[in-house]
Specification:
This protein has eight helices and nine strands. It is an alpha/beta fold and 279 residues long. It has a nine-stranded mixed β-sheet, sandwiched between helices. Helix 1 links the parallel strand 3 and strand 4. Helix 3 packs parallel to helix 4.
Length: 279
């Protein structure tokens, strides 16, 4: 049974997940923004399955509440595009968790548009969710993370490392997240706080569900990847869990690209479907 508590919309969903078992994150806590679906949901499940107590911050109350109940975590309804809502949400989540070890900044939107097709209000909304929320959530979480020598994992994109057609605002926001990650790693490393990022490629999530209705386009996209498939949310979740774990204890300021090798191809020479498949 879920119980709602507080004006921010906290859902308390019972005792810590797998409290009697050991895992990489036993006795640790995490906040995952945008954790109600897609990559964020996979991250929340993966951390919880490895012993972590997880708080999901999302505007999607139905999906977030349902997942929090499933993993015996906490859900807090929060619109991260509203700057005034971020700090109270982080504070409430940390209080419900009893402290904070890991922050995963995952919330994001990915509109398809050139600069000419992007209005100033749309630009500001994209930046508010993809970039400002990372700044605000991290700023609110840092004092709590410092108490436990915790760490931050930001979800950027390979489009923030390279670039992409018709994704101008998205590329700009994710490129900023990449360099913000590096700057924060330098600033907060002396406090024992590691800051890293993952940069996913095309992942099969609700944001890319349109490809299922366009099988020829989906096939072309898959062939353009050296692994001949698009990524799965779990591919990204495992990378995030690694960076958040003690196994990555000396990794700081790193951007781990999770795109099946798509970003290492220059685009020159043979087309992807003509590349050798190996011996």
């Amino acid at each position: 049974m879920m119980k709602t508590n507080g004006r921010i919309g906290v859902i308390l969903a019972g005792p810590p997940h797998r409290e009697d078992s050991m895992g990489r994150f036993a006795q640790q806590t995490a906040i995952v923004t945008g954790g109600a679906s897609g990559i964020g949901a996979a991250i929340a499940r993966t951390l919880a399955d490895d012993g972590c107590k997880v708080a999901i911050l999302d505007v999607n109350a139905e999906g977030g509440g349902r997942l929090a109940e499933a993993i015996s975590g906490v859900f807090i309804h929060a619109d991260l595009s509203d700057a005034d809502a971020v700090e109270p949400a982080v504070r409430r989540a940390t209080a419900e968790l009893g402290g904070l070890d890991i922050l995963v900044n995952n919330a994001g939107v990915c509109p398809l548009a050139t600069i000419e097709q992007t209005s100033l209000p749309d630009w500001r909304t994209i930046m508010a969710i993809n970039l400002d929320a990372v700044f605000l959530t991290s700023k609110a979480a840092l004092p709590f993370l410092a108490e436990r020598h915790g760490n931050i994992v930001n979800v950027a994109s390979n489009a923030g490392v390279l670039g992409a057609f018709s994704m101008a605002a998205y590329c700009a926001s994710k490129g900023a997240v990449v360099n913000l990650t590096r700057a924060m790693a330098l600033d907060h490393g002396p406090s024992g706080i590691r800051v890293n990022a993952v940069a996913p490629g095309l992942i099969d999530t609700p944001l890319t569900a349109f490809l299922h209705a366009l099988p020829q386009l989906g096939e072309m996209v898959d062939k353009a990847n050296p692994l001949r498939r698009r990524g799965k949310p779990q591919d990204v979740a495992e990378a995030v869990a690694f960076l958040a774990s003690d196994a990555a204890g000396f990794i700081n300021g790193h951007v781990l690209v999770v795109d099946g090798g798509r970003s290492v191809w220059s685009g020159m020479g043979l087309e992807a479907d003509q590349m050798p498949t190996g011996v």
